Request: fold
Amino acid sequence: MQKLTSLMIGLGALLMSATGLSAQTYTPDILELDGANGLEFQPEDSYDIVGYGTVEFWVTPDWETDPGYDPVILSNAGEEGPSYLIALLRDRNGIGIVTGDREEIVAFDFTDGNMHHIAVNDYGDTLMVYIDHVLAGRFEPGLQQLPSSGVWIGTADGEASPFIGAIAGLRFWGAPVEPDNLKKYARKDIFAGNGHPDLDYLTAMSEFDNRDVVVILDDQ
Reply:
């Protein structure tokens, strides 16, 4: 995946340039997914954004022909279905968000080979989806609370709909993050300086260098 290696270098340079920090103080964490190396985690309240929360990340696909399914980026699901499942559409022309038996589609062109920032804000009665810091979808109601059997990165349930591409900078928040702060801190170390203004609501974040997601708070 030479293209993804170049993307990693490019995203790292972009983030460090935007923050004014050196590689020693801030390096983005990126998970390269080949369709067979997704991650799985036990259910945690820290991954639960339903009702009042945000999940954000950078993503890029690495396929050109239709894989025959919509590859899943992130899934929090159980026997009754997903509280949320975020997939990149097979034609790379948008994302799908599934909650319970409902699916919402957000159109966007992911064919340029670049990393793009996605943020999903759940307010309970409304779901807001931002792509590259622009409101791309608004839906009512918000996400459906369902029992979770686990959280998966790069598959729907550990096997189905594997993702091929890369994901970076995954963050879970126990309150919806304001759009201005999503944009301002997407390329920054959220702990640097005075820190992100919503830092008290950070519940989990990726540590992809160790193929892990670190729980910050067990509950809110």
Observations:
- The first helix runs from residue 2 to 19.
- The helical segments are 2-19, 179-185.
